[in-house]
Amino acid sequence: MIESFYAYSGLLASVWIVFGVLIAASRYQGYSHARQFCSELGASGSPTEKFSPLINNYPLGILFCTFGYYLAALPGQTILLAVIGGLVILHGLGTLVAGFFPMDADPYTKNPTTACKIHSWAGFIMLLSFYLAPVLVLFEPGFSLAFKLFSLICFILSVYFTVTLAKAIKRQSNPGTHQRLSYGAQLLWLSGLSIVVA
Predict the structure, then answer these.
(1) What is the C-alpha separation between 113 and 39, in angstroms, rounded?
(2) Which of 61, 119, 129, 169 could form a disulfide bond with 96, CB atoms 3.0-4.6 angstroms apart?
(3) Which pLDDT score, from 0 to 100, does residue 153 have?
(4) Helix, strand, or coil here: 194?
(5) What does the pLDDT look like over 102-143, one tens digit per residue?
(6) Under DSSP, is residue 21 helix (H, G, I), strand (E, B) or coil?
């Protein structure tokens, strides 16, 4: 039972974040999923500053770390799979740090606070870890060709929507949509990995 929980914790994290963001947003009057970042739910001074990390970052960080540990500790696992597990753990740690250090209320501020800088670096580490992990899957002999193809598609989608996110930030238009699509592609990959190794 415990082993099954570990194996499916990656899938659980992907489902959890959807409901967590929706629940937190319901307590933030006027919040726009299209125009605002997910992190704005926990931004300094937001109505859900304390609530959002409690139901999102902290449990999600634990779930990511749990799944990463499961991957790294699988019997007979290869060095590559252990590294992939380590990257998932790194993603989990980044999630925890990003929850503890909130971003500024204005995401476009020219003078971010120290907490916001730490939050941004944690977010960068999260992004990078889930860029590298699916790429490493391509070189792991234990995975099927179908899953490798799936990993490649998720990686390409994530990169594409990160590019469109950068453009949306420059225009200050609807970055929330592009952020969710980029991260959604990464979480889709994580869900697939969770199902494959379970």
Answers:
(1) 15
(2) 61
(3) 98
(4) helix
(5) 999 999 999 999 999 999 999 999 999 999 999 999 999 999
(6) helix
At CA 82, angle to CA 155 and CA 12, rounded to 5?
A: 60
Angle between helices 145-171 and 175-197 in degrees, nearest 10: 160
**pLDDT reported for residue 76:** 82
User: Which pTM does this prediction carry?
Assistant: 0.95
Region 27-41 average pLDDT = 96
How far apart (Å, rounded) are the C-alpha atoms in residues 62 and 52? Answer: 15
d(CA 180, CA 85): 23
Measured distance CA(70)–CA(168) in Å, rounded: 37
Run of H or E residues at 67: helix 57-72
Tokens standing for residue 62:
């634990």
Q: How far apart are CA 157 and CA 180, in angstroms?
A: 12
- For residue 115, the tally of other CB atoms under 10 A from its CB is 14
